Amino acid sequence: MVENDVTDGVSPFDYDLFVIGAGSGGVRAARTAVSLGARVAVAEDRYLGGTCVNVGCVPKKLYSYAAHFHDAFEDAAGFGWHLPEVPRFDWATLRDNKIGEIKRLNDIYARLLDTAGVRLINGRAQVMDAHLVRVGEETFSAGKILVAVGGWPWVPDFPGNDLVVTSNHVFDLETFPERFLVLGGGYIAVEFASIFNGLGSDCHLIYRGDLFLRGFDRQVREFTRDEMDKKGVNLHFGTNIESIARVEGGLKVSLTNGEQLEVDAVLTATGRRPNLAGLGLDELDVELTEAGALKVNDRFETSVPSILAIGDVTGGPELTPVALAEAMHLVQQHFGDNSPRSPIDYRNIPTAVFCHPNIGTVGLSEEEAREAHGDIRVYVADFRPMKHTLSGSRERCLMKLIVDDATDRVLGAQMVGEEAGEVIQGIAIAVRAGLTKAEFDSTVGIHPTGAEEFVTMRTPTRR
After folding, report:
1. Helix (H, G, I), strand (E, B), or coil: what is residue 182?
2. pTM > 0.85
3. Contact, 453 vs 399, CB < 8 A?
4. Which residues are catalytic?
5. Class of the CATH-defined domain 161-270
6. CA-CA distance, 169 to 191, in Å (whole number)?
7. Per-residue burial over 85-107, b = 16 or more CB atoms within 10 Å of its CB, e = otherwise
8. Please, where are the H alpha helices in 126-172?
9. Residue (of 444, 393, 453) closest to 424 by Cα position
10. 448 preceded by cis ω (within 30°)?
11. Domain 351-455 grouped into CATH 3.30.450.20
């Protein structure tokens, strides 16, 4: 049932839902709303599929795959494979093949909207009032307006910041940077440092804090630091970029600790902020959070109830599956059968960091568990994977379970190692279901795999 004001059974609006932004969340909301009988339009001013498809998850994972071949070539010798010559990486091939794949996905998104009966409007939308949107010279009225425009890279202010690239552009560099510098300490910074190191760059990561990946489990952060260092990433903690200047043959980067580095390209991966510029929401006094995101309630309504928002623009977890879940939840609340629905549960959302080696995590970190539950048991396995007994690689794997001592419930699981994201996806079901350590222990492992460590850790490492 479509929830809108009507006059004599006819809606006074051009559309029941007008979506601004054709990313994962916006497209899912549009298609789901149409399936419930709503008339829907979507405005997009850049590219179909949003950040994830075009400059985020998809190209990043493709480039991560490419970088992993570096390790695979080195590991092969111990298994009897002798390459006839030193492998040569061609940046243009990877870049252009990626462009072709993204174009294919853009076309799929266009077909999904067309097949569903959603009108796609090209252009930057501007919200004129609670029910009116302008795109170019056209104006549209809508019962509900959904803002799903995602985020945009933020670049710090320092001399020479116009010489940097962001995650929006780094996939399409004209030439491969033999010397590469990443500024930042979040998952995007750590991933790109690993990727370009794996592709062959002399790579530096600069972070102002004492250790990257703030908010993750401390032991996971330390273990990842050590593994990245072993792979050759030059890690610089406790410093920042003071200035960048163009010099013959590259860029001179001056750091706040007095050090200077010469590189070919600098990536600033210092966070993304809601892409609200030019939308007109400030003119309507739509309330923002202290961090500058749109403030929404459990129904994803802003302070102007007919204007809704989901995804990165609301300041929640910046994950595509979260935006998809929010889209479906929102549509059921506003265009469904009006039955009461519980708010989305944001606890125990699994996530992965595609650095090398990968990180996979779900639930509470050890620090969070101690603060929330007090008495806990921590189980840790730190080992050399079977594969590397022949490859000769020094890479190690970390697996970790955090257990509530009072209830025996598994509160969190962490992994750093090959395919950690694939492994943690299955473990996440168990953690979300509230399974106990005893139930983990009673599960028969698959041998020989690394993943079996999650059901064979019997002795607490610490309490």
Report:
1. strand
2. yes
3. yes
4. 447
5. alpha beta
6. 15
7. eeeeeeeeebbeebeeebeebbe
8. none
9. 453
10. yes
11. no
